[in-house]
Each structure stands twice: as C-alpha cells, then as structure tokens.
C-alpha cells in the first residue's frame, strides 16, 4: 500500500500490533505522523563510555562496558527481582530487572562483554541500572553510533516491554525509509527565506538523526517556530471569528450617569492608567462586538472605580450591570463601596449572596427580571438559574482565578445576547504567557498606583526573631495601626494547619492580652455570619489584630492596617504572598510586610522570599513565579493546550514565540482568510491541523 502520514502505526515494518498498542496507549502515537512528531527530549553521546568508578549520583543515561559475572534472584514484596553483577576493571555495579526476567536469563550471557545503557541509581552502597538496554559490544560497534543519539520520551511500561530507546530509533529509521524522508512542506517559501528556516524534510531528518550541533539547532529552530506559529495563528483566528460572530450590545452613548459622576462625585483624580483603561473599555463597549476584556492591575491599583464607571456606561444605555466576587466578604465590601456611589446618583443596587434571606431574595429576583434593579453585586449566587435579568449589559467579574471558565459562560447565557464581560484580576499573568495563552484576548493593564502610595517595606525574619517582631507589633499598635497575621492553609494538611493557626492565636492572645488588645480571628471553618462579625470588628477598628488563614487574601480593604505578618511564609506561593501583601499599604501610613519562616528553606522558597523582599512589581513577581512553577498553574493554560507543546518550551523559547506571533499577526492582517496564493501552504496546513485533532492536540 502507499504510505501517507495518516497511516496507522501498525503498518510500519517492525512495529506490529502489540507494539502499536503500546505506542498508542503510552505515548499517544497512532499514525506515522504522530511518530514523526515524537521529538527527542535530548541527545546523548553514544561514542562515550563510563567506567564504573566514574559514575556519579546525578548522571543521566550513560553507557558502561563490562561483563555479567552472576545472576541472582531476590524475593520482594510482590514477585521477585533479577539482579546481575556487572563488572569492569574499575569496579562492580548491579543491573536490575523487575519484569521480563525469563527473557533476560535466556538471552544475556555470562562473561561476555556488553554495553549497558541506562540511568544509574545509587542504592545500598552501589550503583545499579534498572532495565538497562544491553547490547553485545561487538554488535554495538557494528551499529552506527553517533555522538548525538536522540533520547525519546518513554515510560516505564514501554521500557519493561522492551520498547527501548534503541527500538524507537530503529522504527524511526524505518519510517524514514518507507517515506523516503520526504515530507510535505508546511511553511511558505517566503517566510522560510526571510527567517532562514530549513525545509521540513531537512528539519525532521536532523531532529531525529543529527550529525552535528549546528544542524540540530537549525532543525530545532524551524520546528519550534512552526509549532508556535500555528498555535498563534489559531488563537488569533479564533479571536477574529469571535469578534465578527458574537455581536454585543453597542453602548452608543455616554450620558448623565457617567458624566455627572465624573463631574460631581469622582472622589479623586483618576490616574493616567485608569483613564487609558477606561478609554479602552469605552471603545469596546461602543463597538458592535462583544467585549471580552481582562483587566489586570496590581492590588490597590484602583480597578474598582474603573469597573464602576464602566457600569455607568451600561446604565446610561438603559442596561443592567452586575459584579461578581468570589467570596461573601468581598461581595459585601464591593457592595458597600458601590452603594455609597450609587446613592449619590440614585442608582438602585442590591446584594445577593448565599446568606441573603428568602424574602429578600425573591424581591431581588423580581426586580432584576422586571428591570427595576439596575446593579446587582454578589457571589456565585448570581449564577443560579432563578436569577434572570431584564437586560444584562455588562458583567464584571472580580479576581477571576477563583472562577472557572464554565462559570463565566453561565453568566453569558443569562441573556439572548451575551453581555459585555470585564474580568478583573490582581494576579498578573506575565505578558508573554498571556498572549500565548489568550492570543488576542483583549487585555487592559493598570500599571500605575494612585499617587501618595508608599511602598511596603518587606523583610524576611526567622522564627527565632519572634520577640523583636512582637515588639514591633506593639509599637505599631501604639501608633494606632492594625495588624494582620496570616497562617497557611493547605488542603492536604488542613487539620495540622488549623492546629498551627489555633496555637498561633493562643500565643498571640497571651502576648497581647485583653483588655489592652482585641484580636479577631477568621478562618474557613467558621460560619459566614461569624466570619463577617469578626471581619467587621476589624474593619471598624474595634480589634487591632486579625489572625486569619488565607480567606482574607482577596480584596479586603482596611486602610488603617499597616502590618502584614505571614507565618510559615515559605509555604506560600509567590502570587499568594503578593496578594497578601497587597492587603496593607492602602492608607497613607508606611506599611510593612514581615515574612516569617523556619530556618530550613528550599532553594525555591529562598528565591520566593528574596523576590518578595526585592520587588513589589506584580509583573516581575509573576515572571519569577512562572519560572519557578512552570505555566501549569497559571489560569487559562490548561485550556489553551500550551502545555502540550511537542518541541517548544513556552518559557525558554519565548523569543521564538514572539517572532512566531509577530509573523502570524502580520500575515493575517494582510490576508485575513489566508486566500492569497503565497499563503496556500499555511491554509492547507491549518486545515490539516484542525482536521486531525489528535495529532496536534493543542488545537482546541
Ligand atoms: P484594586 O485594584 O486592588 O481592586 P481598589 O479599586 O480597591 O484596588 O482601590 C484601592 C484604593 O485606592 C481604594 O481605596 C480606592 O478608593 C483608591 N483609589 C483608586 N483609584 C484612586 C486614584 N486615582 N487616586 C486615589 N485613590 C484611588
Ligand atoms: Mg479589588
């Protein structure tokens, strides 16, 4: 039969149905195409051999030449393992098999010289290699060896079933024989010429069988570029389609609400960044497309007022607006803040949360549906089916990382036509990542703090300095300030964490006794009403110290609180630390953040703490966080498929990403439908990629 790249892998000579099944289940390789796109993780020098006495504990895969002098079977919990004593002139090591022992006993010979290949482990005072690849030295020398032998992704199961790296290399060779190494070009000539990209066939050959580093680098560059280029193309096209298909409500005018607020009631001069972002939002709202905008701004940068003024535009056009926040405390706080502003403008506003009483709830449902109620603030309660709007024009979501995508789309479907959506977040997504994840999702950034804000002094203190820290707290309270003390709460160790929190609370209570000192405590196991009560006491200044778990992380605003003490700070992630720190520094006073830790710190913890001490720039912090944790935890990355890259690395290959994005954008700008002859290759490739979803699983 003639071969094409969609041919199932079973047909490749030397594969057969057993191996094909394993390749499918373990590596997701279904077709020739999938196999070709199985790119090596790295390359090793197969012309280099180690002596046993040169082995190091951190060696990756290596080769050792030696002889098996003895086999031994050792019983273990389940079944047994087979050990071979392997020696060279410098020492002794072990080879270990947990499975396939019969085959090994029958096929490996004692006292013959072998090349053993694998990753050495240090165990019971000597090195061993588990499931090594074994080859007689004479065979090894006959086979062509290269200083750049690819190491393919693998799994333990594959190895134990004999699908070794060598085997994969072999079937890869077979694939190149059957296809004659000719592959359809997927990037147009002009682009390849401009960027000096090698052609597809050359790139694929050199990625799998590189002769030297230079050829390999060129191949890698070309394939990484291609991968990122088509993702960007896809994201940008998706966004264009979204914009042209989904009609929003054009808010044609800016009228009395907005104007009179701006003239008479705006409590302060807007910062330049706030004005710029408002203009961006205004222009979205006025167009025919539905706004879907992410508003990023560090804690305290003043997102709320921007959100409120956007709501006024909706109201000026006869629409309703809502604001959703992830917690009860936050919704109440937003509600109180907005209530004051709404009263001045005679705007009807209500609060809807899980603890809204039934009667009140019914009244709210009714007035939302008949349009009497103009603004609603609330929690998830807004998403309930019973909540229906007469004409919801703008939905604002605060701190979006707490809400899933599904929830957001629920808000969308509360109308015949989706409302404009503004998502606010204080956890900045590094710019670079944001665009690779969202393509052209519109992003506004408030990158300027309101004037007069003092920067927060941040220090790292060890537990043994606690007495000094207590003295500092006492001094600050004497000046009339309030203090947060926050304890970590990690789900996995919840009970221990609560114990830490309660122990901490007790020792604080001893150190700061009543009646001179009043202490609030808030944590997740408390009833909402109790939490609220304690919170309110702190907000009103009746208590000087707030002991809490991270429930206070999001949004809480107490300008008089000037000290944030974070206990076991090494256990918090960077973005969380940054969020917590943002709870202070909201008033005119100098504020402080004290990161308390034990003495033993991992390298990552040290980096996190140093970063916090060094900078308060949320974007800089986000970049460090991205480097430390990888993109997996950052919102949106799961859906975007950016984590399933086959060859590019979203962090290390950022330059290539920018380049790819630039070219994808430029091409689409000139030729939105990819209908020019010069873009035919792109169009075909793009269609192909969308068709065979399993091949490039990042096409969602
Ligand atoms: P965040 O972006 O964290 O949600 P907020 O909207 O809560 O920040 O604003 C933080 C504080 O700064 C609030 O007390 C708010 O009234 C105040 N604020 C916002 N914008 C300005 C401004 N332009 N000038 C002075 N104060 C401002
Ligand atoms: Mg806020």
Q: If you had to describe this structure to a student in words, what would you say it looks like?
A:
The chain has a seven-stranded mixed beta sheet. Helix 14 links the parallel strand 12 and strand 13. Helix 10 packs antiparallel against helix 12 and helix 11 packs parallel to helix 12. It is 42% helix and 18% strand. With 700 residues, the chain is of the alpha/beta class. Among the domains are: 84 residues, no CATH class; 191 residues, P-loop containing nucleotide triphosphate hydrolases (Rossmann fold, 3-Layer(aba) Sandwich); 159 residues, 3-Layer(aba) Sandwich (Rossmann fold), CATH 3.40.50. Magnesium ion (MG) binds next to helix 12. The site of adenosine-5'-diphosphate has 17 residues, from helix 12.
């Amino acid at each position: 039969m003639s071969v094409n790249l969609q041919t199932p892998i079973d047909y490749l000579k030397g594969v057969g149905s057993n191996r094909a099944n394993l390749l499918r289940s373990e590596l997701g390789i279904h077709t020739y195409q999938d196999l070709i796109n199985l790119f090596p993780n790295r390359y090793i020098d197969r012309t280099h051999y180690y002596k046993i006495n040169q082995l190091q504990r951190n060696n990756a895969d290596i080769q050792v030449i030696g002889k098996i002098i003895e086999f031994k079977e050792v019983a273990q919990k389940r079944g047994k393992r087979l050990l071979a004593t392997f020696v060279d002139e410098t020492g002794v090591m072990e080879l270990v098999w947990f499975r396939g022992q019969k085959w090994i006993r029958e096929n490996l010979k004692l006292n013959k010289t072998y090349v053993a290949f694998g990753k050495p482990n240090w165990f019971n005072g000597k090195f061993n290699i588990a499931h090594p690849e074994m080859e007689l030295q004479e065979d090894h020398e006959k086979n062509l060896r290269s200083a750049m032998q690819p190491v393919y992704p693998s799994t333990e199961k594959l190895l134990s079933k004999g699908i070794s790296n060598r085997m994969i290399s072999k079937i890869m060779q077979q694939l190149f024989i059957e296809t004659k190494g000719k592959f359809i070009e997927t990037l147009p000539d002009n682009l390849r010429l401009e960027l000096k990209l090698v052609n597809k066939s050359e790139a694929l050959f050199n990625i799998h069988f590189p002769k030297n580093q230079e050829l390999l680098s060129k191949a890698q560059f070309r394939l990484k570029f291609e991968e990122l280029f088509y993702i960007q193309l896809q994201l940008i096209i998706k966004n264009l389609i979204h914009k042209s298909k989904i009609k929003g409500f054009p808010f044609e005018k800016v009228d009395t609400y907005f104007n009179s607020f701006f003239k008479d009631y705006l409590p302060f001069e807007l910062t330049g960044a706030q004005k710029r972002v408002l203009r961006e939002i205004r222009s979205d709202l006025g167009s025919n497309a539905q706004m879907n905008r992410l508003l990023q701004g560090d804690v305290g940068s003043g997102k709320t007022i921007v959100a409120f003024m956007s709501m006024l535009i909706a109201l000026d056009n006869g629409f309703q607006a809502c604001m959703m926040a992830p917690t009860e405390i936050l919704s109440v706080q937003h509600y109180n803040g907005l209530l004051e502003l709404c009263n001045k403008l005679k705007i009807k506003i209500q609060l809807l949360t899980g603890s809204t009483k039934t009667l009140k709830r019914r009244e709210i449902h009714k007035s939302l549906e008949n349009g009497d109620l103009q603004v609603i603030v609330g929690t998830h309660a807004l998403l309930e089916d019973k909540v229906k709007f007469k004409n919801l024009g703008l939905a604002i979501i605060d701190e979006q990382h707490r809400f899933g995508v599904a929830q957001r789309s629920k808000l969308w479907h509360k109308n015949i036509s989706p409302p404009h959506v503004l998502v606010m977040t204080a956890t900045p997504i590094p710019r670079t990542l944001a665009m690779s994840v969202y393509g052209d999702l519109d992003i506004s950034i408030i990158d300027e703090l309101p004037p007069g804000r003092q920067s927060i002094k941040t220090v790292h203190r060890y537990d043994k300095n606690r007495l000094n820290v207590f003295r500092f707290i006492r001094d600050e309270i004497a000046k009339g300030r309030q203090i947060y003390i926050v304890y970590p709460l990690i789900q996995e160790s919840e009970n221990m964490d609560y114990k830490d929190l309660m122990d901490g609370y007790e020792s604080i209570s001893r150190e700061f006794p009543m009646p001179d000192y009043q202490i609030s405590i808030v944590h997740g196991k408390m009833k909402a009403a109790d939490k609220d009560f304690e919170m309110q006491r702190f907000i009103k200044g009746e208590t000087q110290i707030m002991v809490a778990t991270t429930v206070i992380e999001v949004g809480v605003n107490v300008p008089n609180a000037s000290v944030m003490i974070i206990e076991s700070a090494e256990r918090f992630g960077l973005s969380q630390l940054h969020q917590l720190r943002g709870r202070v520094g909201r008033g005119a006073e100098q504020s402080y953040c004290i990161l308390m830790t034990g003495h033993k710190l991992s390298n990552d913890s040290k980096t996190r703490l140093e970063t916090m001490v060094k900078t308060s720039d949320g974007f800089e912090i986000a970049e460090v966080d991205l480097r430390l944790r990888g993109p997996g935890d950052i919102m949106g990355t799961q859906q975007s498929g950016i984590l399933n890259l086959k060859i590019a690395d979203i962090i290390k290959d950022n330059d290539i990403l920018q380049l790819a994005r630039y070219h994808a954008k430029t091409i689409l700008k000139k030729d939105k439908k990819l209908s020019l002859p010069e873009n035919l290759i792109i169009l075909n490739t793009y269609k192909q990629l969308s068709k065979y979803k399993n091949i490039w699983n990042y096409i969602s």
